[in-house]
Design brief:
Belongs to the asparagine synthetase family. GO terms for molecular function: asparagine synthase (glutamine-hydrolyzing) activity. It catalyses: L-aspartate + L-glutamine + ATP + H2O = L-asparagine + L-glutamate + AMP + diphosphate + H(+). Keywords: ATP-binding, Glutamine amidotransferase, Ligase, Nucleotide-binding. By secondary structure, this protein is an alpha+beta fold. The chain folds into 3 domains: 225 residues, Aminohydrolase, N-terminal nucleophile (Ntn) domain (Glutamine Phosphoribosylpyrophosphate, subunit 1, domain 1); 178 residues, HUPs (Rossmann fold); 69 residues, no CATH class. The protein contains 27 helices and 17 strands. Strands 2-3-1-9-8-10 form a 6-stranded antiparallel β-sheet, with helices on one face. It has a 6-stranded antiparallel β-sheet with strand order 4-5-6-7-11-12, with helices on one face.
C-alpha cells in the first residue's frame, strides 16, 4: 500500500529538477507510505518522464522496494495497492518460464504485463492504481481497480501529463491552480461528494474505476479504456439453498485472500452484519485470536458498542473499544476535512478517521465490511423502486404535489438525526412519476431545485446526472441490479471508498474490503433479486448464509450507521467559523452563493427553528475547502 505520482513533460529537464519535483509530490503524501520512497526519472531530446511512490510496507518487506524494472530496464512500474491473487498469477507465470527476483505483488503485475500486455489487467484481483512506462512501445499505462478502491487523479495540457494518488500533489506541481468546475460544484451540492471522472477543478479528472489510460508519448495522445467490459449478467436458475452455500464460500474465500500480510492485521467491528461476518470469517480462518477494533460514543443516541462487544465475545477476539465524544474529534476536524483536497461532506469520515487512528497504533492492516450493502442490497434506498411504483400507482401526481407542499411544515424537524420525519421527507422528494426517482434518492445534499436556490444562476447546471444516465443506460432505473450498478459507479467510488481511503491513509493504515471482490459482485448479479432483498428483508442471502453462526435474530437487528452529531457541533464548537462563512460581504465577494438564501438556510439551523444539518454541513465543508485550500485566505 502506498501512493504514486508521476509526470511527462515535453521539454528536457535536468535529473536534479525531476527528482526535486517528485520529492515535492511525494512529501505531500508521506502519510500514505512512511516506510520508504522511490523515484525513477529519465530525459531525452523529446521529453522528460518521472515516476515516484511512497510505500507502506505490507508484503515482501525486504525486497519489494519500488520502482521495479523489467530485466532489460525498458519497462518500469510504480504501484499503489494490493493484488490478492498474486501468488496464483505468479505460479502460472513460473510455469510459463518467467523468473522473479522479488516476492512482491508489484513484480507480478510487471511480469504479467510483459507476457500478456494490457489484457493482463483483467487478471488482477485487488485494489490498485499503478503506472507502467514502456520504452519499447513509447507508451505509458495508468490503471485503476474495478471498484475504485485506490484513487488516481490526472491533469493534461498541451505540454504535460501529470498523475497522482491525491489531488494535492498535482495542485502543487502545476503552474496555476485551475478554476472551479461547475460540474464538480453541482455534483457536490447534490451528492455531498464528487464522483469520477470529475473533481472540483476544471481540467483535473479522476480516472474512473475499471479503466486504464493509454498514453502514446510520440503523439501526445491519451485514450481511456475499460479493463473489464460491462456485460449484462445472465440470471442463474439456481436454488436458494445452493446460492446461499455459494455466497458463504465466496465470502469466506474473499476474507482469507484479503488476509495475506507480512505485518499485523485486524478488523473493524461495528457490530453490523457486514463487519460481523468479516470478523467471524477471519477468526475461523486463522490459528490465533484476531484483533478487532470499534468505537462507541458517549452520546447514547449514537452508541452501538454493545453489538460489537457481543460479536467480539462470540468469536473470542482481542477486542479494542474506544469511547469518544466531540472533544476527541474537534481538534482533528480541520485536518480531516482538508485532507480530501476537495469538498467532501460525508460526516462519517470523522469517526472513520478516529477508528483508523486508534487501530493504527496496533496493526498496519484492517479488514472492513465496506461494500456489503452495495453487493447484497443493504440500503433503505434499495426499497425505493418498490415504494415509487406503489406510490405512483395509487396517488395522482396532482395530490403528490400537495403532499410535497404540506410536508415542508409537517415534516420539519429541529433535531440532528435521520429519523422517521427525515426519511419520509426524502422519500416524498424522491418520488418521480417519470421513473428517475433513484437519482434523487442518492442525492444526500440537495434536490436540483434546492441547488438552484443556494447557488447563483451562472453556476447552476440543470440535470447534473445526464452524462451518467446516458453512460450507464439508466435514465430510469427499475431493478435492484440497476440501483446497485449506480451505487457502484457513483456512491461507492465517489463517497464510501474515498472516505475510507483518505481517513485510513492519513493514519498510515491499510484498509481492505473483502466484499469488494469482482467474483462475488458478478455472482450476486446473476441471482434472482428476491434472494438479495426478500420482501423488506435486506441482504437476505448474506444473513441466511451466516445466521447459524450468530445468536438468533442478531443479524436482523437494525443499525443506525456511523453517524456523529455534526448538526449540534455546527451550533456549538463550529458556530463561530460557520458564521464567518456567511458574512454578507464575504459571500458577495466569493460570488458563488445566493447570499440571502444561504444566510437564511444557515441561520434557521443555528437558531434551532429548522434542522438543516446535512445542507449546512455541506456548505461548511465547501467553505473550509475554499478558504483553506483554494484561495488560502
Amino acid at each position: 500500500m502506498c501512493g504514486i505520482n508521476g509526470y511527462i513533460k515535453f521539454n528536457r529537464e535536468s535529473e536534479e529538477q525531476l527528482k526535486a519535483d517528485m520529492n515535492i509530490m511525494n512529501d505531500l503524501i508521506f502519510h500514505r507510505g512512511p516506510d520508504e520512497d522511490g523515484v525513477f526519472n529519465e530525459s531525452n531530446d523529446s521529453y522528460s518522464i518521472a515516476m515516484a511512490m511512497r510505500r507502506l510496507s505490507i508484503i515482501d518487506l525486504s525486497s519489494g522496494k519500488q520502482p521495479i524494472f523489467s530485466s532489460d530496464k525498458n519497462i518500469v512500474i510504480v504501484f499503489n495497492g494490493e493484488i490478492y491473487n498474486y501468488r496464483e498469477l505468479k505460479s502460472k507465470l513460473i510455469e510459463e518460464g518467467v523468473s522473479f527476483s522479488t516476492t512482491s505483488d508489484t513484480e507480478v503485475i510487471l511480469k504479467l504485463y510483459e507476457k500478456h500486455g494490457v489484457e493482463s489487467f483483467k487478471e488482477l484481483d485487488g485494489m490498485f492504481a499503478f503506472s507502467i512506462y514502456d520504452k519499447n512501445k513509447n507508451k505509458l499505462y495508468i490503471t485503476r481497480d474495478f471498484f475504485g478502491e485506490k484513487p488516481l487523479y490526472y491533469f493534461k495540457d498541451g505540454n504535460q501529463l501529470i498523475w497522482a494518488s491525491e489531488l494535492k500533489s498535482i495542485i502543487k506541481i502545476i503552474d496555476k491552480k485551475p478554476e472551479i468546475s461547475k460540474k464538480g460544484l453541482n455534483l457536490y451540492f447534490r451528492l455531498t461528494y464528487i464522483p469520477a471522472p470529475y473533481t472540483i477543478y476544471d481540467g483535473i479528472k479522476k480516472l474512473e474505476a475499471n479503466h486504464y489510460i493509454e498514453y502514446d508519448i510520440a503523439k501526445a495522445n491519451i485514450s481511456i479504456n475499460k479493463i473489464n467490459p460491462e456485460e449484462t449478467p445472465e440470471k442463474k436458475n439456481i436454488s436458494f439453498g445452493k446460492a446461499t452455500e455459494d455466497v458463504k464460500n465466496l465470502v469466506y474465500d474473499s476474507v482469507m485472500s484479503r488476509s495475506i500480510s507480512d505485518v499485523p492485521l485486524g478488523t473493524f467491528l461495528s457490530g453490523g452484519v457486514d463487519s460481523s461476518v468479516v470478523s467471524l470469517c477471519l477468526s475461523q480462518g486463522v490459528d490465533s485470536k484476531i484483533d478487532t477494533f470499534s468505537i462507541g460514543f458517549k452520546n447514547a443516541g449514537y452508541d452501538e458498542s454493545d453489538k460489537s462487544r457481543l460479536v467480539a465475545k462470540l468469536i473470542n477476539s482481542n477486542h479494542n473499544e474506544f469511547i469518544i465524544d466531540e472533544n476527541d474529534l474537534k481538534h482533528n476536524i480541520h485536518d480531516i476535512i482538508l485532507n480530501f483536497d476537495e469538498p467532501f461532506a460525508d460526516s462519517s469520515a470523522l469517526p472513520t478517521f478516529l477508528v483508523s487512528q486508534k487501530t493504527s497504533t496496533s496493526v498496519k492492516v484492517a479488514l472492513t465490511g465496506d461494500g456489503g450493502d452495495e453487493v447484497f442490497g443493504g440500503y433503505n434506498k434499495h426499497y425505493m423502486g418498490k415504494i415509487n411504483n406503489m406510490y405512483t400507482s395509487y396517488i395522482p401526481q396532482a395530490i403528490h404535489k400537495v403532499f410535497l407542499k404540506t410536508s415542508k411544515s409537517l415534516l420539519k424537524t429541529n433535531r440532528d438525526n435521520r429519523g422517521k420525519r427525515y426519511k419520509l421527507k426524502r422519500i416524498l422528494n424522491s418520488v418521480d412519476y417519470n421513473g428517475a426517482f433513484y437519482w434523487d434518492i442518492i442525492s444526500l445534499g440537495n434536490t436540483s431545485n434546492e441547488v438552484s436556490e443556494i447557488i447563483r444562476p451562472n453556476w447552476h447546471i440543470g440535470n447534473v446526472f445526464q452524462e451518467y444516465q446516458t453512460l450507464f443506460g439508466l435514465e430510469k432505473p427499475k431493478t435492484l441490479n440497476d440501483f446497485r450498478e449506480i451505487d457502484r459507479h457513483i456512491s461507492l467510488e465517489g463517497d464510501m471508498l474515498v472516505k475510507v481511503d483518505r481517513t485510513s491513509m492519513l493514519n498510515s493504515l491499510e484498509c481492505r474490503a473483502p466484499f469488494l471482490n469482482k467474483k462475488l459482485w458478478d455472482y450476486t448479479n446473476t441471482l434472482p433479486e428476491n434472494y438479495l432483498i426478500k420482501g423488506w428483508d435486506k441482504k437476505h442471502i448474506l444473513k441466511e448464509a451466516f445466521k447459524d453462526q450468530f445468536p438468533e435474530k442478531f443479524l436482523d437487528k437494525s443499525k443506525s450507521g456511523f453517524g456523529v452529531p455534526v448538526g449540534d457541533w455546527l451550533k456549538t464548537i463550529l458556530k463561530n467559523e460557520l458564521e464567518g462563512f456567511i458574512e454578507r460581504k464575504r459571500l458577495e465577494k466569493q460570488g458563488i452563493f445566493n447570499t440571502d438564501s444561504i444566510i437564511k438556510l444557515v441561520k434557521n439551523h443555528l437558531s434551532g427553528s429548522k434542522d438543516n444539518t446535512f445542507k449546512v454541513w455541506s456548505f461548511y465543508c465547501f467553505q473550509k475547502w475554499y478558504y483553506n485550500t483554494y484561495i488560502n485566505e
